[in-house]
Amino acid sequence: MAEFLTHGGLTARHGFFTRQGGVSAGAYATLNCGLRSEDDPAAVAENRARAARALGAAPEALRGLRQVHGPAVVEAGTPWENLPEADAMVTRSPGVMLGIITADCAPVLFHDAEAHVIGAAHAGWKGAVSGVLEATIAAMEALGAGRGRITAVVGPCIAQASYEVRADLRDAVGDPRFFTAGRDAAHFQFDLAGYCLARLGAAGVAAEALGVDTLADETRFFSHRRRTLAGGGPLGHQLSAIIL
């Protein structure tokens, strides 16, 4: 069965899936849900179907995006023929599952239980800096959500101890609170989850983080940074999903 984590801050059905419980092989083993890898498309389709069924939904309920590290948000209703180029989705339609894929970036799931509105966002540092979290909140509000009622959870992502960056990224983020000293004067450790939590809090949304490091746990998570440190090669992605 597709393995997933949950958080009490979300009352809608949801799952931060690990890489366990799928059918992919090799570097993609086993629950690779990435739509743009060179994995066997049939295996990816089965993996995504297993994830949907694990949350009690039909495979066709699961929506996906062509994620580009930006602030665009789309409303998910009927299935789309081509993947929208965006990094977040919202819906108030029961039975529609919002699915974000990540491999170190932060998956963020949102819910307003009173208005019955959900959202899901892919927040790498570029997307977070460009405002994808705030854009998701605004899109939920357009569907009737109330900012003070929305809760959000930041799922498994690369942790500060694992996320070494250079000064250009630190300068692009522009907030020294989320950086600690690195191995030398040219390197810093970035707290992506903490940065996302701060932006959500500043936007008036109650948010928490799972606190799970994707780079450190190779058994359960794919990691872009781990792949880079190993010299490259294929990369799988895990899924985070929410459904009313």
What would your notes on this structure say?
- Helices cover 23% and strands 25% of the residues.
- The chain is α+β, with helices and mostly antiparallel strands and 244 residues long.
- The chain has a single domain (4-239), classed as CNF1/YfiH-like putative cysteine hydrolases (4-Layer Sandwich), CATH 3.60.140.10.
- The chain has a 6-stranded mixed beta sheet.
- Strand 1 and strand 2 (13-17) form a beta hairpin.
- It is globular.
- The mean pLDDT is 97.
Shape: globular
> For the CA atoms, what is the radius of gyration?
17 Å
Q: What share of the residues does DSSP label as strand, in percent?
A: 15-25%
- Class of secondary structure makeup: alpha+beta
Instruction: Label the CATH architecture.
Output: 4-Layer Sandwich
Output the helix-strand order: EEHEEEEEEHHEEHEEHEHE
InterPro entries: Cu_polyphenol_OxRdtase, Cu_polyphenol_OxRdtase_sf, Cytotoxic_necrot_fac-like_cat
Pfam families: Cu-oxidase_4
Family: Belongs to the purine nucleoside phosphorylase YfiH/LACC1 family.
Protein name: Purine nucleoside phosphorylase
Describe how the helices and strands are arranged.
Layout: E1 4-5, E2 13-17, H1 41-54, E3 62-63, E4 73-75, E5 88-91, E6 97-102, E7 106-112, E8 117-123, H2 125-130, H3 132-142, E9 151-154, E10 164-166, H4 167-173, E11 179-181, E12 187-190, H5 192-202, E13 206-209, H6 224-229, E14 238-243
Parallel strand pairs: 3-6, 4-5, 9-13
Antiparallel strand pairs: 1-2, 2-14, 5-8, 6-14, 7-8, 7-9, 10-12, 11-12
